[in-house]
Design brief:
DUF1684, disordered C terminus
């Protein structure tokens, strides 16, 4: 329930507001939030039964001070062929999240993406997206030691033979790198620094070599 006087300067649905209104969680982007204060958008959200408000302020000091991320030039060595093998059924793995809690990460009709990098056979657990592309959360030997602790990878849709390109130049940092309030999944336990995790199977935790933390999209 939002209670405010017109003198507070809030707007609801674009109109000056005074009184009480019951709000639901905002389903769309921040720009579509019902409640605003000038250019700021107050997004109502609910996570696991807990309600909150996220304040999007385009003039925040942190945003104005942000100078960008360090990247390097594209390096063909980090783009290698891969083969996708679907699981055949839906699968969920237990992973830690950025807020410190462990949750199930649904891979849907995902599978294993196998590839070779610098002479080593590696693999990622990936989910299959609606457009046919793949999605993985991964870490490498630099993660947490010179670069951020995880990144995302979005290989293109595999062809009829399951072939696609695994291009680590295209690895992405999520906004959680810049905003700690977000809740994101960390990589599942697997291969790290040459040691295999227990249980066998696909591995979402891979080592991709020295200096990777400064690759495009994977800045520290």
């Amino acid at each position: 329930m939002l209670t405010a006087a017109e003198a507070d300067g809030l707007t609801v649905d674009g109109q000056s507001f005074g009184g009480e209104v019951r709000l639901a969680a905002d389903p769309g982007p921040a720009s579509a939030a019902r409640v605003a204060y000038g250019e700021r958008r107050l997004v109502v959200l609910v996570r696991e039964g807990a309600w909150g408000v996220r304040d999007f302020d385009p003039e925040s000091s942190a945003r104005r001070a942000f100078g960008g991320l360090r990247v390097t030039l594209y390096d063909q060595r980090w783009a290698v062929p891969g083969r996708f093998t679907p699981y055949g059924t839906g699968r969920t793995v237990r992973v830690a999240n950025a807020d410190g809690r462990e949750r199930g990460l649904g891979l849907g009709l995902g599978g294993e993406l196998a590839f070779a990098l610098e002479g080593r056979e590696l693999s990622l657990q990936v989910s299959l997206q609606d457009d046919g592309s793949l999605w993985a959360v991964f870490a490498d030997a630099t993660s947490g030691r010179g670069s951020y602790r995880f990144r995302f990878l979005r290989p293109a849709a595999p062809d009829a033979d399951g072939l696609t390109t695994v291009d680590f130049n295209r690895a992405l940092l999520h906004a959680v790198r810049l905003r700690r309030s977000l809740r994101l999944s960390l990589p599942a336990t697997g291969e790290h620094a040459g040691r295999r995790g227990g249980g066998g199977g696909a591995h979402a935790f891979v080592t991709v070599g020295r200096g990777y933390g400064s690759r495009p999209g994977a800045a520290s």
